[in-house]
């Protein structure tokens, strides 16, 4: 698990907010975030913040 993978996944969500398939990508991104927090790559509070932002982006209307 690398931070680069997380950053790319979150940037992808920002770029494609509200588009079709974003909810599927959100699930994968949240899974990556959870794994990174579990392995202590990122802090658990940062993981919670990122997951909140990803969910917000996946439900956003464009």
How would you describe the overall organization of this protein?
The protein is mostly helical and 62 residues long. The chain has one domain. The chain is built from three helices and no strands. The radius of gyration is 11 Å and the shape is elongated.
Helix content class: over 70%
Assembly form of the protein: single chain
Report the biggest beta sheet as strand number plus sense, adding barrel if it closes. none
Secondary-structure element series? HHH
Count of helix runs: 3
Give the mean pLDDT. 88
Shape: elongated
Number of strands: 0
Name the poorly predicted regions.
none
- Name the beta content range: under 5%
Number of domains: 1
Distance between the termini: 31 Å
Structural class comes to: mainly alpha
Radius of gyration of CA atoms, rounded to a whole number? 11 Å
Features:
62 residues
Task: Offer a concise description of the structure.
This protein is an all-alpha fold and 62 residues long.
